[in-house]
Design brief:
alpha/beta, Signal recognition particle alu RNA binding heterodimer, srp9/1, Rossmann fold, 5 domains, 5-stranded mixed beta sheet, 22 helices, 46% helix, elongated
Length: 633
């Protein structure tokens, strides 16, 4: 029972206790407060049975019930509503009445030294001690329940792991995974061990206790872990590492113990810990927020649990991270996470297979080529491709189509890569300047040898951009020649160069182009050793290949100020040479530039074939021609 329901039942029990006491132990009649004169009148009528006096206050009991205030004519004495009762209270006047005692004795009134008891004492007992006893019993039940479940008070220490059972949940197998065959082959051995453990144990072998999946976000690490559980037919306990750590120290370790206890009870089973770096960071460092003690206790408990179970129990721990460099070395030693598998982004063939999986439920039009879409999506992860297929299906449904066409996929790709359209009202002058800017990028993408072919150019505002030129490589690239990098810088500076040639002025539209060009040029100088002045020296901090962005220097730069000035000079030289090259090429092909601008103003969006048709230019020459120009001497 969840803690919220427990408190609800506790409140219901208290309310029921109150009602039962009111029904079976009704409270005594509340005493009437009467004036002293009324009290003496009732004494003279022999209607007072007994009294008890304490100071100026007199309590007593009437023989027959008395109504007060009395009704006289159409009005009642006083302002209060008339009440009837057999018990009363009154107050002696400030002056002493010497004849009161004789009057009471004459009329047979019992004068008592003890207070007059009215009603039963059970209500006082029940109301006084009943709620306290209920609270005590409730907490006894709560602690016993927590002890049985191993979760601590109110379930704070209970594991929040989600259990996926192949008998109850949708089964995921290797048929649902594509594009990462090398990792599948490694995990197939894990599946075989869970299915046939005696095959390995008879020769003294044991399965790995832990397998660490390393890769960029969206590459399918969690899907792979579920596929292993689905293929082996065993329960799968999934939990994010961030869910272990709480504000209260010790909760994370308790949840680790509870998670492994559940896995042992359902062995053979698989434990999957996502984002392991949240609790697996190297110990001894300072963690912001003051949670270092809790994080280290949780990590120590994981290390202890992985040491405490045998691989013969059939429990295998899978974990995923995109920051393997920050993990504690104790996690990575043999006997804990024995294997580390890198889950890379899929290649062209893998992307086509992934698209086949994500379009199984979608009727595709005859003009759809998954191989063409795979070629148009370099660098896409499995999650990106799933999003592409879903966006295309939504676009087709919005257009009231019965199938998903090639145009739906291309429009969905454009929306994902370039951003959604923005309905901005631009003047003729602004549209023309934007067209020249984007045409500069596109023309250089066609002219510069080795540049990525221009897939589409548009002057329709999308995302944060007023126009976009989308270039894609012909094939997946894993190694970048210096000529290719220079070609990219030249293409990026084409927009600014076109504005300078046509208008002779500059605008802020080239901000993103300058940022990208500067990043490439600086990496060429500091990271890839492509500067003759600086040589083969690494001057940039190590970066995580699975996360975007540069980490930057944690402290002082590991080189002198003279070297820093030389780095800046080399970066400026590369950008200056590329800018001059962009200006030269665009001046030589001004006619083609103007023709492309006129077509953009008319149609707003052009694809690769239309660009070549409008400009009359051939496709970009091969990279080798540019490599000779910038050959290292």
């Amino acid at each position: 029972m969840p803690p919220r329901n427990a408190w609800l039942w506790f409140i219901v029990i208290l309310a029921l206790n109150f009602l039962l006491v009111r029904i079976f132990f009704p409270a005594a009649d509340e005493a009437l407060t009467v004036p002293y004169t009324v009290f003496k009148e009732e004494v003279r009528k022999d209607n007072v049975a007994a009294i008890f006096s304490q100071g100026e206050r007199i309590e007593g009991r009437f023989v027959e019930p008395v109504t007060f205030p009395r009704v006289v004519g159409d009005a009642a004495e006083g302002t209060a509503a008339p009440r009837t009762g057999t018990t009363f209270t009154t107050t002696l006047p400030s002056f002493v009445d010497p004849g009161l005692e004789n009057l009471l004795i004459e009329h047979g009134v019992e004068i008592s030294a003890e207070p007059i008891r009215t009603g039963s004492g059970w209500p006082l007992l029940v109301f006084g001690f009943g709620p306290a006893l209920l609270i005590i019993l409730f907490y006894v039940w709560l602690f016993r329940r927590a002890a049985r479940q191993g979760g601590g008070l109110m379930g704070i220490g209970r594991s929040k792991a989600k259990r996926y059972d192949v008998e109850r949940d949708t089964r995921v197998t290797f048929d649902d995974v594509a594009g990462i065959d090398e990792v599948e082959n490694e995990l197939a051995e894990i599946v075989d061990f869970l299915k046939n453990p005696e095959k390995y144990t008879r020769l003294g072998g044991t399965a790995p206790k832990g397998v660490l999946l390393v890769g960029a976000p969206g590459t399918g690490k969690t899907l792979l872990a579920r596929a292993v559980a689905g293929e082996a037919g065993v329960p799968f306990f999934s939990m994010s590492a961030a869910e272990f750590v709480e504000m209260i120290v010790g909760v994370g370790a308790a949840r680790v113990r509870d998670l492994f206890r559940q896995a042992r009870e359902h062995a053979p089973a698989i434990i999957f810990i996502d984002e392991l770096d949240a609790i697996g960071r190297a110990r001894g460092g300072l963690i912001l927020g003051g949670s270092s003690a809790e994080q280290e206790q949780t990590l120590n408990q994981i290390l202890t649990e992985m040491d405490g179970f045998s691989s013969r129990e059939g429990i295998i721990v899978l974990a995923a991270t995109n920051q393997p460099d920050v993990l504690d070395r104790a996690l990575l030693r043999p006997g804990r996470f024995d294997r580390r598998l890198v889950v890379n982004l899929p290649d062209k063939k893998g992307r086509a297979e992934i698209l086949k999986i994500h379009t199984r439920q979608s009727p595709l039009a005859p003009d759809v080529s998954l191989e063409e879409l795979a070629a148009a999506t370099p660098g896409f992860s499995g999650a990106d491709l799933r999003n592409l297929a879903n966006e295309a299906a939504l676009l087709a449904a919005r257009r009231n189509r019965n199938d998903v066409s090639r145009r739906d996929f291309l429009d969905a790709l454009e929306k994902i890569v370039l951003g959604p359209e923005r309905p901005l009202l631009l003047t003729r002058e602004d549209r023309e300047r934007i067209a020249y800017h984007e045409a500069g990028h596109a023309i250089l993408g066609v002219l510069v040898p080795g540049a990525d072919p221009v897939h589409r150019v548009t002057i329709v505002p999308r995302g944060h951009a007023l126009g976009v030129t989308y270039q894609r490589p012909d094939s997946d690239r894993y190694n970048y020649p210096e000529a290719y990098l220079r070609a990219r810088i030249v293409g990026m500076l084409g927009g600014r160069a076109a504005e300078e040639i046509v208008y002779g002025t500059r605008t802020t539209g080239a901000e993103n182009d300058i940022a990208q060009a500067t990043e490439i040029a600086r990496n060429m100088v500091t990271r890839w050793g492509m500067s003759d002045e600086l040589g083969l020296v690494q001057l940039a901090p190590k970066r995580n290949p699975y996360l975007s962005g540069d980490g930057g220097f944690a402290g002082e730069k590991p080189f002198s100020e003279e070297t820093a000035r030389l780095v800046d000079a080399e970066v400026q030289r590369l950008i200056r040479e590329s800018h001059q090259e962009a200006l030269r090429l665009l001046r030589e092909h001004r006619r083609e530039l103007d023709a492309l601008v006129a077509a953009l103003l008319e149609r707003e969006t052009l694809d690769e074939e239309e660009i070549l048709e409008v400009t009359g230019l051939p496709a970009a020459p091969a990279l080798e021609e540019r490599a000779e120009r910038y050959a290292v001497r």
